[in-house]
Amino acid sequence: MLDSSSEVVARSPTWVHLRKVGAAGRHPSDLFSGGDEKEEEAPGVEAAGVAAGAPGSGAMASLSGKGEAGVAATRAARWQWAVLAAVALLMLKTIHDSTALLEPATRNTFLFEVFLYYNPLVTVAYMVALWGVNLWAFAHSRVSYPKVFNIDPASHLTQHDLWKIAAWLGVAVLSSAAAFLYCFTHGAPRAAAAQPMLLYAALPLVLALPFDVLYAPSRFFFLTTLGRMLLPLQPISFPDFFVADVLTSMSKVLSDLERATCRMLNGQVASLLWLGPDDVCGGHAMAIPCVLALPYACRFFQCCRQYSDTREKNCLLNALKYATAFPVILFSGIKYRVPLEEWRGFWKPLWIVAAVVNSSYSFYWDIARDWDLTAFSPAACHGRHPLLRANLYYPHKWVYYWAMVTDGVLRASWTYKLSAHLRHNHLTVFFFSALEITRRFQWIFFRVETEWCRMLLKAEQRDSALNLQALAGGGRDEEAEQLLPREQSKDRV
Question: Transmembrane stretches, by residue range (predicted)?
Answer without folding.
Answer: 116-139, 165-185, 197-216
